Amino acid sequence: MNNLRPVGIIGTGKYVPEKILTNSDLEKMVDTNDEWIVSRTGIKERHIAAPDQATSDLAYEAAIKALESAGMTGSDLDLIIVATITPDSSFPSTACILQDKLGAKGAAAFDLSAACSGFVYGLASATSFIQSGMYNNALVIGADCLSRITDYTDRNTCVLFGDGAGAVVVGEVPEGRGFKAFDLGAEGAGGSLLQMEGGGSRLPATAETVENKKHYINMNGREVFKFAVRVMGTATIEVLRKAGMERTDVDLFVPHQANIRIIQSAMQRLELPEEKVVVNVDKYANTSAASIPLALVEAAEEGRMKAGDTVLMVGFGGGLTWGASVLVW
Ligand code: ACO
User: Fold this and answer.
1) Ligand 1 atom 36: the closest Cα is on which residue?
2) How far is the CA of 213 from the centre of ligand 1 (A)?
3) Where residue 226 sits, what CATH number does that domain have?
4) Ligand 1 centroid, distance to 151 Cα (angstroms)
5) Same domain, yes or no, for 206 and 167?
6) Greatest CA separation found in the chain?
């Protein structure tokens, strides 16, 4: 990958909806408490989309900021990829809705489904398109409205999720910078551990599927936890190997924000000190595809990386999937 055209991130933006749902709000909705949620997950609050906001609306807010920070407008884009598992509707894609709203006339646009790993899958796709010379500028967005598919009577899941969007413009960067390696993967055999069964061609929406709560996230938390701890470690080691780097080369570690205990186990395994790790799961909870870009963009806004720093992003999610990348900022 090192001999190819250098491709990296040239603009960033993020958006979370205004409404905040705290742990004490949840205490009034299900049999839970702040102490359990904080100690088991690290989450204190999460942002929830307004009734009139859909995923494309969150994505749009993040996208215009990313374009502005890149000094671009929609007409500069050749490609729009939206990583999401909560598209506005099955079709048209959320990416096509955005293409219209952003005035990105003629740009290719598609949605990508890899749950919480979706943003890294999107970065890898955009980078490949640009390195091949097919396109020059791509907008990659991770956006999800998990609140729309969360059962707020199920304490096992409803405390974990929030809504948001993070966007980056991907394009050519100076020599020596940009993406150095990706490691993407999947274990489809574990698909049923984390799924929303209803609403597709297998189980189209009927009164019965609604009655049986088939349009909500269903998760085996313990098994997903084990998978997460395993692949956060293995994917990080593998992507560093592909990039020809050591774990000590990492300046900033940007993990998927699902659970502080999963992040801590990766930190221990990789012997990463706290100051090198981005954590905002306390404020936003698990925002699925938006989680990694929200953490990356927030870190950029806080001035936590400087040109030349090595940034390692890694996530896992439904599918089951994982994705990791090494980026020289
Ligand atoms: N409040 C109080 N008690 C609760 C709550 C709650 N909100 N939720 C579960 N409990 C109870 C359980 O019922 C259980 O009680 P029991 O022992 O009487 O049965 C007890 O707490 C402990 O349950 P565990 O499942 O063992 O709790 P654990 O420590 O594993 O934490 C958690 C659960 C937070 C879900 C954890 O397993 C986890 O984070 N898993 C990974 C989830 C994840 O990352 N999902 C990714 C989704 S990403 C995507 O693609 C959308």
Assistant:
1) 221
2) 19
3) 3.40.47.10
4) 14
5) no
6) 57
Burial class of residue 30 in the structure, from the number of CB atoms within 10 Å of its CB (0-12 exposed, 13-18 middle, 19+ buried): middle
Dist CA 148 CA 217 (whole Å): 10
Q: Is position 116 annotated as part of the catalytic site? A: yes
Q: What is the pLDDT of residue 36?
A: 98
Identify whether 70 is part of a domain: yes
Structure confidence by residue, pLDDT tens digits, 242-277: 999 999 999 999 999 999 999 999 999 999 999 999
Same domain for 82 and 145, yes or no, is: yes
Number of structural domains, the chain? 2
Q: Which residues' Cβ are closer than 6 Å to ligand 1? A: 32, 36-37, 40-41, 115-116, 155-156, 159, 194, 219, 221-222, 224-225, 228, 258-259, 286, 288, 317-318
Does residue 297 share a domain with residue 185? yes
Q: Per the residue annotation, which of 116, 137, 218, 259 is the catalytic one?
A: 116
The pTM score is: 0.96
Q: Which of 175, 199, 233 is the last residue of a domain?
A: 175
Residues 114 and 66 in one domain: yes
Task: Specify the pLDDT at position 4.
Answer: 85
Average pLDDT over residues 213-228: 96
Q: Is residue 33 flagged as an active site residue?
A: no
Question: Is there a domain that residue 202 lies in?
Answer: yes
Per-residue tokens: 237:
């080691």
CA of 294 to the centre of ligand 1 (A): 23
Q: In the listed set 175, 201, 234, which residue is the last one of a domain according to the structure?
A: 175
Spatial separation of the C-alpha atoms in residues 128 and 66, rounded to whole Å: 20
Answer yes or no: do 122 and 203 share one domain.
no
User: For residue 218, how far is its CA from the centre of ligand 1 (angstroms)?
Assistant: 12
Q: Are 115 and 317 in contact (CB under 8 A)?
A: yes
User: Which residue type occupies 122?
Assistant: G
Q: Which atom of ligand 1 approaches the CA of 318 most closely? A: 50
One-letter amino acid for residue 165 of the chain: A
